[in-house]
Amino acid sequence: MPVTLAEAVLLVLRSLAPYSQEPEPETAAELDWRRTQAAICITGAAETRARGWSRERVAASLVALGEAESHFARYVWVGDCMRGPVGARCDPHRGVSRARTAWQLHRAACPRAWSLPHGSTAEVCAAAECAASLLQGAAHRCRNRAVSPEAGAFSGYAGISCTRPGSVRRARRMAALESQIRTIMSRPSVQSLNVSPLDAGLAGSPGPGPVPPAVALWAGPTGARSSEAKWR
Fold first, then answer.
1. 142 occurs within a structural domain
2. CA angle 117, 228, 128 (to 5 degrees)
3. Whole-model pTM over 0.90
4. Is residue 23 part of a domain?
5. Angle at 159 between CA 156 and CA 165, to 5 degrees
6. Can you give the chain as a three-state secondary structure string?
7. What is the pLDDT along the chain (232 residues), one digit of tens a residue?
8. Is residue 80 in a domain?
9. Which among 5, 35, 55, 116 could bridge 123 via Cys, Cβ 3.0 to 4.6 Å?
10. How many domains does the chain have?
11. How far apart are CA 129 and CA 133, in angstroms?
């Protein structure tokens, strides 16, 4: 069977370097569980929230956004932002973080995610859907004011401006990730990637709570790539 979008997204997520400034260590199994959780939710958002973008582009945009906004850090994932390094505490105000999830959504931008437990699959999936809709909405709003609709998507996601510094870099990163996803999916089967199988979906994982229907996901390549700094 051809490589699925969920499998390709998981492989891409596994190629990212873990965040280097976690306040407490995370086991390899815990990290991989979160990546599997993210892959399922990103794929779900790409399948249901594509508005003029291909599902591969939506998935790539969510990976690029999460990488730039939070590095998919565990402390952000579980809602422990104030333990993170100064300057990376989820838009704090008077000691309280105002953004949550890997995509750094404020309450008004995604009330559904804010109503759910930190780190739950339901929260992650709700946030992925909100982020996908916001990105594509910003791309449309900024289509004639930014260098490109894709750059406008990342700029407009963060605020009113369509020309925010760093947005072009994020758009380029998204394009590279989309190319990577499409290349992986062009392979005739997961087995052709020379990877080892992982139990379907999140079954048997160390993560908490119920999970959505199982999706066949597989282990990805070793080796990591540095994440880009937020808005640098």
1. no
2. 30
3. no
4. yes
5. 70
6. CCCCHHHHHHHHHHCECCCCCCCCCCCHHHHHHHHHHHHHHHHHHHHHCCCCCCHHHHHHHHHHHHHHHHCCCHHHHCCCHHHCCCCCCCCEECCEECEECCCCEEHHHCHHHHCCCCCCHHHHHHHHHHHHHHHHHHHHHCCCCCCCHHHHHHHHHHCCCCCCCCHHHHHHHHHHHHHHHHHHHCCCCHHHHCCCECCCCCCCCCCCCCCCCCCCCECCCCCCECCCCCCC
7. 789 999 999 999 999 999 999 999 999 999 999 999 999 999 999 999 888 899 999 999 999 999 999 999 999 999 999 999 999 999 999 999 999 999 999 999 999 999 999 999 999 999 999 999 999 999 999 999 999 999 999 999 988 999 999 999 999 999 999 999 999 999 887 666 544 433 344 443 444 443 333 333 333 332 322 233 332 2
8. yes
9. 116
10. 1
11. 6
Distance CA 32, CA 220 (A): 10
Q: What domain range includes position 77?
A: 5-130
C-alpha to C-alpha distance for 115 and 126, rounded to whole angstroms: 10
The answer as to whether 229 is a domain residue is no
CA distances to 22, 29, 35, 36 from 206, in Å: 19, 7, 12, 11
First to last CA, the chain: 41
Phi, then psi, of 52 in degrees rounded to 5 = 95, -15
Residue with tokens 């390094």: 85
Report the distance separating Cα 114 and Cα 92, nearest Å.
16
